Request: fold
Amino acid sequence: MSPETPTKASSSSDSWLTLDVWAVVIALLLALAVKFDILHNVPW
Amino acid sequence: MATSTSLSAVARENPLLKAVSIIPGVLLLAGIGYAAKVLERTINTYAKTHHWTFPNIEYVLWAIIIGLFISNTLTIPKVFQAGIDTYEFWLKLGIVLLGARFVLADMMKLGGISLALVVVEITLSLALMTLLGRLFKLKPKLTSLLAIGSAVCGVSAIIAAKGAIDADDEDASFAMAAILALGALALFTFPAIAHSLHMNDVSYGLWAGLGVDNTAEATAAGALYSDAAGKVAVLAKTARNAMIGFVVLGYAIYWAGKGQAAVVTNKAAFLWKKFPKFIIGFLLMSLLVGFHAFTKPQVTSLGNLSKWAFLLTFAGVGLRTNFKDMSKQGLRPFIVGALGEVLIACLTLGLVIGANRIWGL
Reply:
């Protein structure tokens, strides 16, 4: 953890929910891409 | 210095520059993650070819070790920081996508057991941390933050509670440092203990989800044991995260009653604001798979995308753990945190063993 973490954390306290929404939106877009074979057989 | 400050200020205001500013750090996360995968494969192949008896070190551990090595031996240039900070986004993206790998019935059964255990775990953790905070004469709000962090979900819970109970930056920093340091220790101790107890994947996953505080570390601790344990750890941790609003609301009301925090006027709005929205995405993804929206190969693809997202998260876990910075935060909160965490780990282990006897996990 960097020394600035607390300041960053406090300044982002209102935006961490937005991060959740972004994660859901991007996940749904990826799911659509998989569904319509834009992304297919993603390797691991 | 002035130039870098003004540049970052411009980046904050311009979304395009903001997007560009995360690229170096994300590439670093991806590079570490990929190197970890290559290392796992290469070492295993080499050991097999040369008939060595070498413990299988998973990519998860390699990613964390490489990250830890970089952050504790080198000075990471500022240009990487914005991208490294995205590890939490990759974590949440990975969790939402992981929803695709849960059959709805399994999720309901395990989720139900997890929720029951979570309620017991939260009650015990809050009581224990409050008691330890009083015994060690920590500041009351720091005790509250440590209790919330250890009972619910680590750093996110501390950040959510900090504003609600009007705690100091310094207290939040202490509590976060203690939770992160102990989470890093759990990565190495939890799998070792579970192996010595011959725990099955589900029991261990539940224990990691209940006993490790920060979501990234809980996910990593689960994945270090096995893929199946990683899945269950995420589910248990998600059930725990869902409680964040209720616990923070309780503390906000307590401190408002003492006249040391703002009064919560609309409790429903407060709960919704604090609720981690990615959980809805996680459930939605599982529902979509449950309704056969995807074919089997497509579900595998979604699962693999989730693994890639987690890979970046694990690299971030190592990179943001700097033991020198943590040691600057002071010893007393760390001792209280450590004592509490060891006791909570024992209690949750007992809970999981009990649940295994009752429900046959």
User: Anything to note?
Assistant: Chain A touches chain B at residues 1-3, 5-10, 12-13, 16-17, 19-24, 26-28, 30-31, 34-35, 39-44 (CB under 8 Å). Residues 1-13 of chain A have pLDDT under 50 and may be disordered. The radius of gyration of chain A is 16 Å. Helices of chain A lie at 5-11, 16-35.
